[in-house]
Specification:
Elements lengths: L4 H6 L1 H16 L1 E2 L9 H7 L10 E2 L2 E2 L7 H16 L3 E3 L5 H12 L5 E5 L15 H5 L1 E5 L10 H11 L3 E4 L10 H11 L2 E5 L4 H5 L12 E5 L10 E5 L4 H12 L5 H14 L2 H23 L3 E2 L8 E5 L7 H10 L2 E2 L1 E3 L13 E5 L1 H5 L7 H11 L4 H15 L10
Parallel strand pairs: 1-13, 5-6, 5-7, 7-8, 8-9
Antiparallel strand pairs: 2-3, 4-10, 9-10, 11-12, 12-15, 14-15
EC number: 2.1.2.1
Pfam family, one: SHMT
Protein name: Serine hydroxymethyltransferase
Length: 415
């Protein structure tokens, strides 16, 4: 059934592209770790009449009338977040992950203050004080990395830099970190230098909710996360914190950085949080990790070099230096073969971020389709055939991928 009849009548050009994207998401193997498939319920919530509402402020303290339905929705989302993650306070209004992190700066720091975060080539995020980000322009960013011998976070370096630089904020977590984050160790360092510790769990929030990754909540001051990726919700974000920081966080989000929240997104977040509290979701998260581990093993058996030697989470970082194929070249070849990844820097990369040495893979989306560990040998085999292979091989793999995915309907898609 075509769900876009009215859109097709009003704007055939956009409707055509939306349908094309549905088909693309159906017949390509999506291995970008930050992407997923939301449920039909989450998708439906994002398209409700709540998009018509303006609701500056917080429940019970709005600057607009007519909030008798919106206030309960936001309260439900906040309470579900608090229950699922075991936090004192939750703010579900941030528009996305980067604005959420900016709100943390506004709440606790002043321009020019020092912030310590993981270096981007080591797996950190732009908003952890990297130079090209506003956070690296308005604040003094200092960095830690990973050990050359293990590819894992160098906690000795974290402590040394923290003692030397005395940061106001310390970020742990990142965007390409395949190993478990030691929140307790970061907390010890933060206490030693009297810093606010922020866990950016955007990638692993769903794994934390399902208890397949340790929770940062007992150790950190603030938890920042997006609501998509492994949490399998809409494109949004949340900030969670101890009760003592609730006022500062809420004030930083509104009126500090934002106006009215996106109420349709808030509703979809609430739906996703309800789904994440189920045993089905916990089983899903366990399968995500199991699939990632097996995919890593299968790739390693085919000669691929995995940063840190594997994964504890949903993602793999693959260094293609020894293969002699740049990351961008590999990613584009895989895309032509129906396997969607992103090119990515690797620790100690000698190439530029726009033309790096690695690719980043993740298993959230394929796991949402019901693909299991028994299928990871096929996935690894296709990647092996395409990276450094011929255009003819890409075409053959494209056919095989499309046929394979026909067995695994994508959640929320009509095609």
């Amino acid at each position: 059934m075509d769900r876009h009849v009215e859109l097709g009548r009003t704007d055939p050009e956009i409707a055509s592209l939306v349908r094309a994207e549905e088909e693309l998401q159906q017949d390509t193997l999506r291995l970008i770790p930050s992407e997923n498939y939301v449920s039909a319920a989450v998708l439906e919530a994002t398209g409700t009449v709540l998009t018509n509402k303006y609701s500056e402020g917080y429940p019970g303290r709005r600057y607009y009338e007519g909030q008798q339905n919106v206030d309960p929705i936001e309260n439900i989302a906040r309470e579900r977040a608090k229950s699922l993650f075991g936090v004192d306070h939750a703010n579900v209004q941030p528009y996305s992950g980067s604005p959420a992190n900016l709100a943390v700066y506004l709440a606790f720091a002043r321009p020019g203050d020092t912030v310590l975060g993981m270096a981007l080539p080591s797996g950190g995020h732009l908003t952890h004080g990297w130079g090209v980000s506003a956070t690296g322009t308005w604040f003094r960013g200092v960095r830690y990395g990973v050990r050359a011998d293990t590819g894992r976070t160098d906690l000795d370096e974290v402590r040394d830099v923290a003692l030397r630089e005395r940061p106001r904020l310390i970020f742990c977590g990142g965007t390409a970190v395949p190993r478990t984050v030691d929140f307790a160790a970061f907390a010890e360092i933060a206490r030693e230098v009297d810093a606010i510790l922020v866990a950016d769990v955007a990638h692993i929030a769903g794994l934390i909710a399902a208890e397949v990754h340790p929770s940062p909540v007992p150790h950190v001051d603030v938890v920042s996360t997006t609501t998509h990726k492994t949490l399998r919700g809409p494109r949004g974000a949340m900030l969670m914190c101890r009760a003592e920081h609730a006022k500062a966080i809420d004030k930083a989000v509104f009126p500090g950085l934002q106006g009215g929240p996106h109420n349709h997104t808030t509703a979809a977040i609430a739906v996703a949080l309800r789904e994440a509290a189920t045993e089905d979701f916990r089983a899903y998260a366990r399968q995500v990790v199991a699939n990632a581990k097996r995919l890593g093993e299968e790739l390693a058996a085919r000669g691929f070099e995995l940063v840190s030697g594997g994964t504890d989470t949903h993602l793999l970082l693959v260094d293609l230096t020894r293969r002699g194929v740049p990351g961008k070249v590999a990613a584009r070849a895989l895309d032509r073969a129906g396997i969607v990844v992103n090119y990515n820097t690797v620790p100690f990369d000698t190439r530029s971020p726009f033309d790096p040495s690695g690719i980043r893979l993740g298993t959230p989306a394929l796991t949402s389709r019901g693909v299991g560990v028994e299928d990871m040998a096929s996935v690894a085999g296709w990647i092996d055939r395409v990276v450094g292979g011929s255009e003819a091989e890409e075409a053959r793999v494209r056919v095989e991928v499309r046929e394979f995915l026909a067995r695994f309907p994508a959640p929320g898609l009509a095609v």
